[in-house]
Design brief:
By secondary structure, the protein is an alpha+beta fold. It has two domains: 33 residues; 127 residues, Immunoglobulin-like (Sandwich). It is built from two helices and ten strands, in the order αββββββββββα. Strands 1, 2, 3, 4, 5, 6, 7, 8, 9 and 10 form a ten-stranded mixed sheet that branches. Strand 1 and strand 2 form a beta hairpin. The longest helix is centred in the first third of the chain and has 32 residues.
């Protein structure tokens, strides 16, 4: 009879350990699924007399699912849209996009003359050295708060140009 009690207790411990392991793996999968990273981001300083700007960044999806960026919000503007520059009939044209798909374990670059966030109706001018809080909105409901520095578009071009010579 003691053998049966020992076997039953041992089986219960194994079952409990298995349940704990499954829960741990599930929580890691949920955490990993929400892993979106933003790097090299900045917002262009406003040109005097205008109330628009644009934001650029690299968005990397480290999750096991496709992510779809559907917009952004900020207290600096009531309207932020996803836009894209495209060459059409020899002319560069900008158009609004509904979303940007970021495949799992992939990255998308928002950059001048390409995909970017257009920020309209700014409530104040953006000056070099400022930091702006944005929240990226994803189709699955995820919201990713980020802070981006405001930089001069001229400085970015110079830095990029200088980097190409190394």
């Amino acid at each position: 009879m003691n053998v049966r009690i020992f076997a039953k207790a041992h089986q219960t411990r194994i079952s409990a350990a298995l349940v704990a392991a499954v829960i741990s793996l599930f929580s890691l999968a949920v955490h990993a699924d929400n892993h979106v990273k933003v790097e090299n981001g900045y917002i262009r300083a406003t040109i005097p007399g205008t109330n628009i700007s644009s934001a650029y960044m690299v968005i990397t999806n480290h999750s096991m699912n496709v992510k779809e960026l559907i917009g952004a919000t900020s207290n600096i503007s009531p309207r932020i849209e996803i836009h894209e520059h495209q060459m059409s009939e020899g002319m560069m044209k900008m158009r609004q996009r509904e979303s940007i798909v970021i495949n799992m374990h992939d990255a998308v670059t928002l950059q001048p003359s390409g995909l970017h966030l257009m920020i309209f109706e700014l409530n104040k001018p953006l000056k070099v050295g400022d930091n702006v809080e944005l929240t990226l909105q994803f189709k699955d409901g995820e919201q990713l708060p980020i802070s981006l520095p405001v930089e001069s578009i001229k400085r970015k071009k110079k830095a990029k140009h200088a980097h190409n010579h190394h």
